[in-house]
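Technical annex, item 7. During the second reporting period the consortium partners agreed on a shared format for inverse folding records so that results from different sites could be compared directly. Each record opens with the tokenized structure and is followed by the designed sequence. A conforming record, contributed by the partner at site C, is shown below for reference.
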């Protein structure tokens, strides 16, 4: 028999804040954690909460333990997931700029960039210390940030950079 989770129940004020948060379209993890706390306040067991939210029992238990330890602050201090980026914004901008330009513009005898040629250029000119072709492809495909690059130009950039 699984052991029960002994986390405190939220106060009425905390429940109001949780409901307000859920109305504002939070992120996926934040929503799951807030819903788990609301279900816990209603007296539901961890396994029933996990089944209702489509999450693992241990995930819900961890959410409730985080609430017990930090209160509603546990909703804003969620981990970002994954390692921090090792590419600076300047390096990304340089990669995107080079991919949009012809190799002839930087003095190379090629008609178009391939991922291997662009990678070699970036390494030789110390734009980055190391980058794989696959990572370079993903950077070009994503573009800069979603706010400053259209998906059409990202697709064209990736297509032109991926050709040999």
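Designed sequence (site C submission):
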């Amino acid at each position: 028999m699984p052991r029960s989770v002994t986390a405190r129940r939220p106060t009425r004020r905390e429940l109001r804040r949780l409901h307000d948060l859920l109305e504002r379209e939070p992120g996926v993890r934040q929503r799951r954690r807030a819903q788990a706390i609301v279900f816990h306040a209603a007296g539901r067991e961890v396994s029933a909460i996990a089944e209702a939210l489509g999450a693992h029992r241990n995930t819900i238990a961890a959410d409730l333990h985080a609430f017990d330890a930090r209160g509603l602050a546990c909703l804003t201090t969620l981990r970002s997931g994954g390692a921090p980026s090792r590419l600076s914004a300047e390096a990304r901008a340089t990669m995107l700029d080079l991919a949009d330009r012809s190799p002839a513009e930087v003095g190379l005898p090629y008609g178009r960039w391939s991922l291997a040629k662009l990678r070699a250029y970036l390494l030789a000119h110390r734009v980055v210390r190391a980058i794989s072709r696959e990572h370079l492809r993903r950077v070009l495909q994503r573009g800069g940030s979603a706010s400053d690059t259209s998906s059409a130009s990202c697709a064209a950039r990736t297509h032109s950079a991926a050709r040999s």
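The chain is about 55% helix and 0% strand. The longest helix spans residues 28-41. All partners now use this format for quarterly exchanges.
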